[in-house]
């Protein structure tokens, strides 16, 4: 049984896969308490892997995004194998502090200051920028590095930073900007 905050179908609004239709499986619970997090961690329902797969398969897309909270606290290779068996492409949004199953297709790491990363593979780094030193994150072995304004409140600061540090790309929360449900 897994603590599921919600499962819903939408478009990815952030990072490399922006605009891609996806089923989001949002897990409840996190080992960090970030002030800008948009998940209500106290809300959840317990679901079996079969129930998760059944609900995910009611939607017409291939991409499934495991998010949270921190999905790394809840997932294992049993769930990822079941998702792959159902023909799904698995992406995860993680803070990177948990060891993940190795068969995840796309790993988005959103590292936080003062944490130790336990990932063996990262496809993209996506940092919510609030003025912190983000230069160490460029050393992470990822092909794509994104900076994202914090709830759209510091977009001009992020743009200015990226213009001075062109190794970064801008990620906007387009789902919030254009009110995608």
TrEMBL record:
Keywords: 4Fe-4S, Iron, Iron-sulfur, Lyase, Magnesium, Metal-binding, Queuosine biosynthesis, S-adenosyl-L-methionine. Its cofactor is S-adenosyl-L-methionine; [4Fe-4S] cluster; Mg(2+). The keyword Iron-sulfur applies. Residues 17-181 form the Radical SAM core domain. Pfam families: Radical_SAM. Pathway: Purine metabolism; 7-cyano-7-deazaguanine biosynthesis. Substrate binds at residues 11-13, 26, 67, 181. Mg(2+) binds at residue 39. Belongs to the radical SAM superfamily. 7-carboxy-7-deazaguanine synthase family. Catalyzes the complex heterocyclic radical-mediated conversion of 6-carboxy-5,6,7,8-tetrahydropterin (CPH4) to 7-carboxy-7-deazaguanine (CDG), a step common to the biosynthetic pathways of all 7-deazapurine-containing compounds. This is 7-carboxy-7-deazaguanine synthase. It comes from Phocaeicola coprocola. The gene is queE.
